[in-house]
Amino acid sequence: MTRKRLCAALLALAVCATIVTRIWLRIDRYDIDLIDALAFNFRYFTIWTNTLIGLTCAWVALGGREPARLQSGLLLSIAMVAIVYHVLLAHLRDYRGIDMVIDLMLHTLIPLGFAGYWLAFVRKADLRFPDILPWLILPLLYCIVAMVRAAYFDGRYPYHFLNLAELGVLRTGINIFGLLVVFSGFGALIVWVGQRLGRRPAFAGGDA
């Protein structure tokens, strides 16, 4: 097994163990069924992004090849998860025990691990600034799904900036546009860094 596949396998296992544990704790603590626990957890962009990273890394670990642009787009999303959490939310949390471990995995260790994987193994020389547009599909799709779900099903908006019922269409639309602008800015940074690092060879057997 190449170093790339080994690192991908470790990341996939880390994501799987973390999310499965989080779901199990939700079931155990609130005496709910699996469907309700899944619905609660997948309300959040953090879980969407970590899950996609886990699936992608599992595919690579099994010998599949993923386009560098896809992996770079996932890097953008998980980087935003980590940055927003540590800048705006971390000081509001006071987790202990297993909850602290899960929080650390989802918002710090898995993002750092995937960033390291990207730096070491992903072929970056072909990244171009137009690649940023497809990377915005995931956050935009998430925003739409989150608002539709809250408006028509459970009434729970996962993030205040998406609270269509309270903020109205115009304000919510401005918030989403601002979010996509921020994503675009960090996406441009990833492309810029990738183009420069891409001139160097990836680890042996580790190009993607």
Could you give the topology of this structure?
Elements: H1 3-30, H2 34-41, H3 45-61, H4 68-89, H5 97-121, H6 132-135, H7 137-154, H8 164-197
Helix pairs in contact: 1-2, 1-3, 1-5, 3-4, 3-5, 4-5, 4-8, 7-8
Radius of gyration from the CA trace? Answer: 18 Å
Domain unit count: 1
The major sheet is characterized as: none
Q: What fraction strand?
A: under 5%
Helix count? 8
Give the CA-CA distance, first to last residue: 15 Å
Total E-strand runs: 0
Write the element-wise H/E pattern from the N-terminal end onward.
Answer: HHHHHHHH
Helix fraction, binned, reads over 70%
Structural class: mainly alpha
The chain-level mean pLDDT equals 93
What best-fitting shape do the alpha-carbon axes yield?
globular
The poorly predicted ranges are 204-208
